[in-house]
Amino acid sequence: MQPYPIRFLKNLNRGTEIATVLLNHGFGDLIERLGLRPYLHWGRRLVSKKAAEIPESLTPARRIRLVLQDLGPTFVKFGQVLSTRPDIIPGDVIEELSLLQEQCPPFPSEEAKKVVETELGKPVTELYAEFDEKPLAAGSLGQVHRAVGRDGTELAVKIRRPGVQAAVESDLALLQELAQLLERHVPESRVFDPVGLVAQFTRTIRREISFRRESRTMREFLKNFEKDNRLYIPRVVEDLSSDSVITMEFIRGVKPDAPKEIEKYHVDTARVAIDGATVFLRQAFEFGYFHGDPHPGNIRIRPDGTIALLDFGMVGYLDQEKRERIVDLFLCVARHDVDRAMGVVMDLGQPAAPIDKSLLQTDIRDFLDAYFGVPLEKLRVAQLLNDFIGILSNHGLRCPSDLMLLIRAVITLEGVGRQLDPKFNLALTLSPFIERLIRERYSARNIAARATEDLRKLLQAAHDLPLHLGRTLQKISEDDVKIQLEHRGLDKLIVEFDRSSNRIVVGLVTSALIVATALILRTAAVQSVWFALPLFILSGLLGIWLVWGILRSGRL
């Protein structure tokens, strides 16, 4: 039998809940393969029966969504992160995961005030002139209350949910264990990189759960856009903020998906759409630091037509090299440059397995054919990026997570722009940024800087070469060279060997009990007979269990 997963042993109740939810949604076979059956209160027969009861109308993709939904906020957020990775996750699963919504009731206002008082060291009545008991909004990590500062400023107070950090860390440990079990026992899952996906999610949610980090992000955005009057970033009140509390300026405005409310402001929605796209593209291509979740709920249009951004828990980073690869992608489309496009795809995509370069080149050519010569005003950036992601996905190429976050954010942004103005075209706003980046790339200053950096790296490599060569020769002379070997195709053999060894052990134990019983029965004492009877029954039951297990499934 497989041992209990270590992290599951540390949290048996949660482990049992996860196994039960998987069972309820028809993943009994997965429970068996992952070795989670010991966490169930029922046996293998019920697992098989339960799996058979799942209606055919519930597709595997929908059942995956239901599992994550039933397991609570951390798993819902994990599903939301997975929905941003169409380069790895199949389209039908992405479609289902995009339906995941956080359904968390607000926690009592007394608990909220207690968090504030514990973090800031004073009673709420001393910190704020007013503090509304009813929260404005609630999520899995926290909730927001309206307040008024001692100076009369209208404020929003974001408070972390009590106990959420410990709960998230516990679930992250279980997710890591599940991912490792998947890769170990379900070989077909390796193409999705479960361990890598959980690692990405771990980084993402730890960023979100740290309100101090979010405060720093807001200050950084405020600094970057202090001279751009198209974007408004709420000011953070430093003295009333901590790692569990953010007190910030309250923003009055309406969401971009509320056209009737926007009409009351009498603003030019077409101009607002262009301004919103422009400030986002500045974030990504000028600063390399962008809001990762620009959906309507995180955007407010103010009465003067300026755009305010909310919730900076999810941000992405783009280094100069990735920005240049994105520029190259659009240049390849404009020039129908198949060879260069191959280079861009290989630079951006990380192959999960050997790829067929001939087939990849054919797909890239088809991709470029579809967009070559399309007038800028008719180009749909979201469709182009989706098709590009499709190429990566079809060939097992994994896109860097921050780049995927940018692509999904751009796709969301184009949708928001069209809600404001049906004629909005993101390509017309994007084009000037691409042109400027191209000019900067080939400017005399950048060429000189790049040549200087390349020369520095070359000189550094020449300087380090004797040192590295000496270390290598020393290791060889000391017999300290380690060669890593990767075996392929032996997983099934190892599993079968494990099962066979289990049967042998049970068989030997059963034989030993039978021999012991026979030796005891040779004695004439009545007491010995009564002592031997339980041993005889036990050996018989073990024998029956062994034969039944072999005949039924080959497992113990």
Notable traits:
61% helix; globular; 4 domains; 5-stranded antiparallel beta sheet; 556 residues; 3-stranded mixed beta sheet; Phosphorylase Kinase, domain 1; 12 strands; alpha+beta
Describe the structure.
The structure is a single chain. With 556 residues, this protein is α+β, with helices and mostly antiparallel strands. It folds into four domains: 6-100 and 181-207, no CATH class; 104-180 and 208-250, Phosphorylase Kinase, domain 1, CATH 3.30.200.20; 255-442, no CATH class; 491-552. Helices cover 61% and strands 7% of the residues. The strands form four sheets. Strands 1, 2, 3, 4 and 6 form a five-stranded antiparallel beta sheet that branches. The chain is globular.
